[in-house]
Amino acid sequence: MTGPTRVSTRRSTRGSGEGSGPLRYPLLFAVVIISAFPVYWTFMIPSRTNDVVGQLPPPFLPGGHFFENAARVFDTVNFGKALMNSVIVAGSITLSTLLFCSLAGFAFAKLNFRGRNALLLVVVSTMMVPVQLGIIPLYIEMQELGWGNRLISVVLPTAVTAFGVVFMRQSVIQAVPDELLEAGRMDGCGTLRLYWHVALPALRPAMAVLGLLTFMQAWNDFMWPLIVLNAENPTVQVALSTLASGHYRDNTLVLAGTALGTIPVLVIFALFGRQIIGGIMEGAVKG
Amino acid sequence: GDDGGKTKLTINTFGVFGYTDLYREFEASHPDVEIVETVSEYNDHHNNLVNHLAAGSGAADVEAVDEGFIAQLKATPEQFVNLNDLGASDRESDYPAFKWSASLSADGRTQIGLGTDVGGLAMCYRTDLLEAAGLPSDPAAVSALWPTWDAYFKTGRDFAAKNTGVKFFDAGTNIYNAQIFQLDESYYATGTSDVIVGSNPKVKTAFDATAKAISDGLSAGLVAFEDEWVTAMKEGTFATITCPAWMQGYIKENAPETAGKWNIAEIPGGSGNWGGSWLTIPAQSDHKDLAYELVSFLTAPEQQTRIFKETGNFPSSVTSIKDSAVQSFTNPFFDDAPTGKIFGESAISLEPQYQGSKHGAIRQAMEHGIQRIEQENQAADKAFSESVDEAERAAR
Amino acid sequence: MSTIELRDVTLTYDDRPTLESLNLVVEDGEFLVLIGPSGSGKTTALRIVAGLLAPTAGQVLVGGRDVTDVPPADRDLAMVFQNYALYPNMTVRRNMEFALRLAKVDRAERDRRVTAAAEILGLTDLLDRRPKALSGGQRQRVAMGRAIVRQPRAFLMDEPLSNLDAKLRVRVRGEIARLQRSLGTTTLYVTHDQTEAMTMADRIAVLHDGRLQQLGTPDELFSHPANVFVATFIGSPPTNLVPGLLSESPGTGSLELRVGDQTVEVPAAIRAGLAAPTGTEVTIGVRPHDVQTEPPADPALIFDVEVDLIERLGTETLAHGAVPSGPPTSPETCRFTAALDPRTPVTSGGKLRLYAAVDRLHLFDSATGETLRRRALLAAA
Amino acid sequence: MSTIELRDVTLTYDDRPTLESLNLVVEDGEFLVLIGPSGSGKTTALRIVAGLLAPTAGQVLVGGRDVTDVPPADRDLAMVFQNYALYPNMTVRRNMEFALRLAKVDRAERDRRVTAAAEILGLTDLLDRRPKALSGGQRQRVAMGRAIVRQPRAFLMDEPLSNLDAKLRVRVRGEIARLQRSLGTTTLYVTHDQTEAMTMADRIAVLHDGRLQQLGTPDELFSHPANVFVATFIGSPPTNLVPGLLSESPGTGSLELRVGDQTVEVPAAIRAGLAAPTGTEVTIGVRPHDVQTEPPADPALIFDVEVDLIERLGTETLAHGAVPSGPPTSPETCRFTAALDPRTPVTSGGKLRLYAAVDRLHLFDSATGETLRRRALLAAA
Amino acid sequence: MTIATPAHPAETAAETAAAARETPRRRRKPHTTFRRIGRATVPYWLIAPFFVIFTAFGLFPMLYTAWISLTDRDMLRPGAAKFIGLGNYTDLFSDEFFWNAVGNTFLLMAMSSVPQLAFALILAHILNTRLRARTLFRMGVLLPNITSIVAVTIVFSQIFGRQFGLISWLLDTVGLDPINWQAGEWTSKIAIASMVIWRWTGYNALIYLGAMQAIPKEHFEAAAMDGASTWRQLWHITLPALRPTIAFTALISVIGQIQLFTEPLLFDNSPGSVSGGNSHQFQTLALLLYEESFRLHNFGYGSAIAWVMFLVTMALAAGAYFVTRGTSRLTGGSR
Ligand SMILES: Nc1ncnc2c1ncn2[C@@H]1O[C@H](COP(=O)(O)OP(=O)(O)OP(=O)(O)O)[C@@H](O)[C@H]1O
Ligand SMILES: Nc1ncnc2c1ncn2[C@@H]1O[C@H](COP(=O)(O)OP(=O)(O)OP(=O)(O)O)[C@@H](O)[C@H]1O
Ligand SMILES: [Mg+2]
Ligand SMILES: [Mg+2]
Fold first, then answer.
1. Which of C13, C34, C211 to mutate for ligand 1's pocket (most ligand atoms within 8 Å of CB)?
2. Are residues E60 and E93 in the same domain?
3. What's the rounded Cα separation, in Å, for the pair E228 and A135?
4. How many domains, in total, are found in chain E?
5. The pTM is what?
6. Of A70, A92, A119, which residue constitutes the final position of a domain?
7. Residue ranges of the ABC transmembrane type-1 domain (chain A) (predicted)?
8. Mean pLDDT, chain B cut into blocks of 10 residues (396 residues total)
9. The total number of structural domains that make up chain A
10. Range of the domain at E61
């Protein structure tokens, strides 16, 4: 001790996790690098020419060919339309999921009606249906309805999901206090107004989370769109499959398409990331 | 549907058929027709075709089918238009027998598709790598090295003894399949649905020979068509590769930097065919006649010749094969090898091989066995018997 | 403005009655406080009045009209919730005018009422803030404002102060009481804090285990608790309870009260007001403030307290300790607290002799816990 | 047992000082209460002592040893948290012996200590329950038990009663005080409730905005607040503040106090104890309990209160209202509260004349807010 | 894998009770006014979209599949379906490929769920400290969830390449033999598990982080004063408090892993192969289902597999539900 007024910079809670100590930053950086690596790769490879693909060690730094490869994507497939379709599909699925799931979640969480628990059980159990085998009957159904090769056949089946309903129900329980609803009822709200004026504003973080997850899933889904849509009217994933159809593996081309298809998602993630992370964590508080 | 008064004719293909210009020509001669082509990835294409057939709708008016799937699909001929009814029987004589029969239903009545190309077999090799091992590199001399598979494997052992750090061939499955493709009878007893994969001595011979070659260290142990196989092709870690006609394109486009280092010799053990496609018309098509017009236009000999020149897809029409343009064609990438001649002879002389409906699945089961030997050092006998079990289960 | 009446209201959860046959009238313009310990059913009763909960049996009348089947919004009551239940996404202004908007009150009128209420509550500068940006006291006022602008027939409030800290609670309780008086709106107010009840109420209803214990002015409840429960619940520190015996002296025929080894005679005036006890055993309630250190002129009980804790509040000093109880032969004691003048010399560990005038004692039947005061007198009080 | 000393402790969050150069000694065995409004830095100070937070500058000494750099576990202090922080997954017994287990105390000794502590706290029957199955008061006692079994050099407690309801709080504060006295363990206790501070403390330290306002016995703080803040913070209802003027009478040379239109002379005895004010404006503190309705013998200030709210607590009656303040020409008023005998006749809306003896007034410099009492007297008090 | 929902099954009972509160049984006459009826049907309107869509596009295919599973049907010959009762199911139970797939599925489930949740916990523990650029780290760990499947396939095939993979290359540079990931019984599972772990660790970590932040800070401080190190705090404080969350994430992860499909499908990068390796060493139930139906066209058999998967999942979920409810009762409430 050197003097009476020793100034120190220590100012930490000696509480949780402090002792993970000096290692935690390197560790976190490692985790983030591992997490981000495929995304980075998606953008790095298309910036090179095809001849570096498969080299060992692989090139880790980007080159200058991204736009060239991106242009090839647009030459090879109808990528503009694919992007457009994907935005429409993922956008409508997201919007309808948010709307219908929050409505149903609200009803299951806060309204009282005959058969509620039984119905909820039905909802929960539908989450456990393996999707792969419903495809043929579903396809037949879509054809019967005359929706083959139309975007609506991609949108409708996932327009509202059991997961979403359960998720929203949980969020309503946590984010919307009964007292607030009672206040609304005293103020003269009917059920729909309670939903709109009271519940919905409180559900924003949860909606951000569900919205992103739904959007991501809709955006990346390829099995079903591939069957029900064709390359004339593709989504991004269908178009990507076409990109991969050549004689040889043109990873720069495929990944250039993938990169282009990832950009909208990254933009959304960058815009709403903060909220989404908050929402995921909030949602778990009482998990 | 019809829109703008024009009939929309849809065609689904995979890979590179190279038809774009032909569509425009067809449209020019049929002013009220609009052709819409959808190209998908090989497996996606065939999976979708099956799904659409199973669902009873959604298939295109014309669907391309590859050799790997044709046996399975012709087993349900009712799903397709019998092209014989639309006049395809006239074309029979122009196709090599094996090509015509491969898409013919078991009862011989329904022809579900017209051939577009064939995959006559040859053996591609790296001249530089053979030379490095003290072997000849001239095609004639190389062909002379391996009139039979035994000779091929012996050459391989000589090659291996030189320890050049390079393996003799790429993957056991390619060698095994080439031998199977040359048989007159493989997994099914001709004309029946009897699976003889376990009892056919020729299958066992091919399997064992391949297994031995692997254990002699001739194989690079790659899995064909995987990314690493492509890498190996670039890096030159194997000297020879079973080479159906379309393989030229694979090599050229995946390993452009190896230009001039390749040449093409004959395949050991006589001719064979691997690959090639057909154009079919699903029974659900609303434009069967028009579709047939398109199919016969696209598969006409002169178009096949043209496509060969543009894309390298080897013609399946005898007329086209015998065309001097094909016969005299040489491939600069392969050191100006006379590829037209090599593949043409291989194709025309081939005897048909009967394939039952689960041929593809059985083939995959057998490939699993070869790969187990190659990748997991499984004993050949065990690999064979396990594969036969798997094959028989798949065919049940 | 309007009366609120509960008639035989019963509510049963899982066969356990939470409210049993509750009868209660809140008079027009009255400030009635419903008090009781946690779980006694206060919130339940309030929510039944609001219409947020339907009673199992019984009726609710507002302004004389049976509203038992009327939905909450149509009862024309405004409620202030414990945690205020402000809409977090709306500004203060929007919060206050929300009900008016739903009722399609026109814009000018809405503005007028909000401005007026904001004026009264000192919220004028905060109208554009959101609840998050307000302090606890300000939120409380917004909640009040939301109730006021509706100009409802009555206010219902459920522990509206319990989220405020001690200082603020004292201030805001004054504000609410003043406001209610100036508006004259009938108010049913729930709390478990007896100080709040005493200071704010016109009348207090004490609830315990779903049953009404006593209903009366703060003064009545304080001076004449109907039973032991009310005696200990109202008043702080709580009334001391000491066991005693009440018997007629065989000789004189006068009524004698025995506590420990002392016996005092119950003066005739008091005796006249007493109902006959069912037995001789009684519970004597002595308020901590009703003891003195000097012997009074009137007959008095003496308590010798062994003080073990002194709490000096500045304005008064609380002495806690044990007093002997039971017959002189047994060494039983019971806890006793006295509120003394801060200048009284008293030390922890010391002894303290205290006197409680007989007319200040509360006598309860120790079997039933009911007061021995005559019903008639109770009603008159 | 041990002293605790804070030397020049400063803590700065984001360049805003939360504690500024705090100096404080808790004597061996003393019960010292740290009080202050929310956000004043009490918890911060306590956590610095505990070692959960490192000061920006300054030192912490426990038993004379500098422990500023010693980790919490090695300071040998036990802490009782506001929400008790009981480990929910452990039984009461496990909760209590957890620290001993970590310290590798052997089993027999652990059992001995836990049994003893449980005995003292009446927890013997609850040892196998989990915290969830306990009532608030019981949880509080487990938290105490956890501190006791460690036999630490001192207890640190952060608002340990604030989660209890009013009744229970009164009871438990008595229990804690009794326990601390019987164990004799040095205790630093944080609260924002002045009643708690007054009743429990040996000495009280008042904190405001991170600065120590006054340190003294409850009585000193109550009788001789060092500044306006302490005067209003300690005592309930809070001290009334009335502006006044202090000036030497030009004629007699005596000191005169002017409030509104009245002037009283400050007796020489009192005058002797006053420091000279920096100006003539003073703030006069009048405790609500220091007023009477009868004129006293001594010189007194008269307050004419326009009563607008009556709060009848039973034991006393609070009358709130406005008194004229400022010079007679201006109609300014200020709020005034009086604590009256419950029998005083007073009605809302009425007028009330109150007298406050001059020797009961607290005079503060209105510029600085500091008391005008001489330092020497302060120290001696 | 489905996405985790922060719903805790054990809560349902309590909430049901809470909801029932709104209308305790009433002894009065039933309401017959139109208004009441109108109001009473509102909840059904709110949940109707889900049930309509589910019935149309979920239930119908499911029931269709159930019917198919009772027939012997070639995918391409819908007309030639034969009703064979439970024949497919009895065949299934004597099919070694089925049992192999069951074994693989559960093994992969264990290999991916356990480390995934453990890593997530540790990651959350680290993220729960005072950090610079906190949001950045938190967003970073969520990136795998938004990465395109195509990119994942390509990157992982390059990492786990047999001879030229990144890992093999790294091993080579330190003089070790390359690992043939796809071929090995264990190596292939490790690789697939690591893909799953990669994809879901961050997401679970954020859920845990949320739950951790709900633990009162004082618990950690009390433990610190009692002398517990941070790892002991993780063990004694964090873990017990996170138990319901862990149970929930485990359940969701298990449900997801039963349906594990994409990762093993993509990992087998020899084109067109859906058999999960040469020895079916990583063929999961979902993959077997896919192979049977779409490759071998045994639609009936595939449907039977789908229903078995469904029933197994239901059984597991029900089991988990009762287990968590049971323990929560024992410990007096699950929160
Ligand atoms: N939904 C419910 N199901 C069963 N019992 C309930 C329910 N809601 C309340 N109760 C019970 O009803 C009783 C009264 O509850 P109520 O909330 O009215 O008490 P309170 O007097 O408001 O208490 P507090 O002062 O704690 O708010 C309690 O015993 C409570 O346990
Ligand atoms: N982690 C922090 N970062 C920044 N400021 C903080 C932090 N913790 C506390 N403060 C600030 O320090 C001041 C003192 O906080 P502290 O918790 O010590 O107050 P307190 O006296 O205990 O109040 P209360 O009675 O509300 O508990 C407050 O203004 C608070 O906002
Ligand atoms: Mg309540
Ligand atoms: Mg604090």
1. C13
2. no
3. 55
4. 2
5. 0.80
6. A70
7. 83-272
8. 73 88 94 89 86 86 93 91 92 90 89 92 93 91 93 94 92 94 90 91 95 94 86 90 87 86 91 90 94 94 90 88 88 87 82 86 93 92 95 89
9. 2
10. 38-82
